[in-house]
Amino acid sequence: MNVYFLVAGILCFILGLVHSILGEYLIFKNKRNRGSLVPTKVNAELKERHLRIIWATWHLASFFGWCLGIFLIKISFDHSKLDPEFINFTIHSTIITMFVSSLLVLIGTKGKHPGWIVLLVIGILLLIGN
Fold first, then answer.
1. Do residues 122 and 98 make contact, with C-beta atoms less than 8 angstroms apart?
2. Taking the model in full, what pTM does it have?
3. Which of 6, 18, 22, 83 stands 20 to 30 A from 114 (CA)?
4. What's the rounded Cα separation, in Å, for the pair 65 and 78?
């Protein structure tokens, strides 16, 4: 078992969970009508359809993180049983994705959003584990 890949996969799940929960609480809770799943309360600068796609995209990011987490956890347990070329490609692609994502969040939020740190840690764990 590759512990680095396992921890990176678990961090992907945790990051996605925290992302969705905090997003709902901090961003979308005041933008939703009572009993509505999708937020629809808008202001002059934001149309309802834009708010809806922002909400959907917000949760897609969490879901994609969970999917990456599943891949990493699977690889962590079955590393020797899987095709080494495919594993190498998958891990390298994920390392690049995590480092670029970390940089994007760091720049986009001027370092004020802690998500960039978790993304960076995941990338580093994958780099070490590879």
1. yes
2. 0.87
3. 6
4. 20
